Amino acid sequence: MSFWSSQTLRSHLPSLIEPFNADQIQSASYELCLGEEIYISALPDTPLRERKKIILKEKETVAIPPGQFAFLITSEIIKVPNNALAFISIKFKFKSSGLINVSGFHVDPGYSGKLIFAVYNAGPLNFHVGRGERVFSIWYADLDKADENPRNKIGYDSIPTDLINSPDLVSSLPYLVKRLDDMEKKIENYSVKQAFVFAIAIGVLLSFTKPIVDIFIQPLLNMLKSSLPIY
């Protein structure tokens, strides 16, 4: 397997990437831009009407909150020949700020369509991305021969609903934090209630035992006290 050089990319990619821009060839890779769609996993208090894809205008930005997942789609349509394989990643300047690619790292031979990246904001701050920004990189490499079982499924042209419908709260860090906070409050409330019940029980017990002490125990104590010798 040999990776395509910048010269090979410049020769082959005009028929494999649409739209193609020669300026986006950098060090044997091609830089891909963020497309018009993005989906961010919902925060615990996000209203249902807002749990949907975000459609970005040209150069519009959106923030991925800390601890949240997002689906990002490329603006380019990618094709991979049957005799090649492609590798994909997020550019280092984005990864160094905490944006992590948690989806696949390669594109199958025969694939044709836009690419969808599942990302996670592992940083402490909101991470802003903008439509048309060069966020991703792709590398092409030759196979020793044309693959006899290339991908023949239709590629993506938008972020599909089955990805959006996937449970996202389970993996959301803010959601887990909220659950821990709720659990702590429940434990605290339970402890207060237990202490209150215990105090009432002690009070009731004392109210029942005092007459017994007055009638039986106290006279006995008085008798014992009077029978003791005085020195």
From TrEMBL:
GO MF annotation, one: dCTP deaminase activity
Stretches that traverse the bilayer: 195-217
A biological process term (GO) from this entry: dUTP biosynthetic process
Highest rank taxon of the organism: Bacteria
Alphabetized InterPro entries for the sequence: dCTP_deaminase (IPR011962), dUTPase-like_sf (IPR036157), dUTPase_trimeric (IPR033704)
Hydrolase as UniProt keyword: yes
Pfam families assigned to the protein according to its UniProt record, in alphabetical order: DCD (PF22769)
Keywords annotated in UniProt: Hydrolase, Membrane, Nucleotide metabolism, Transmembrane, Transmembrane helix
Name listed for the protein in its UniProt record: Deoxycytidine triphosphate deaminase
Species, as recorded: Desmonostoc muscorum LEGE 12446
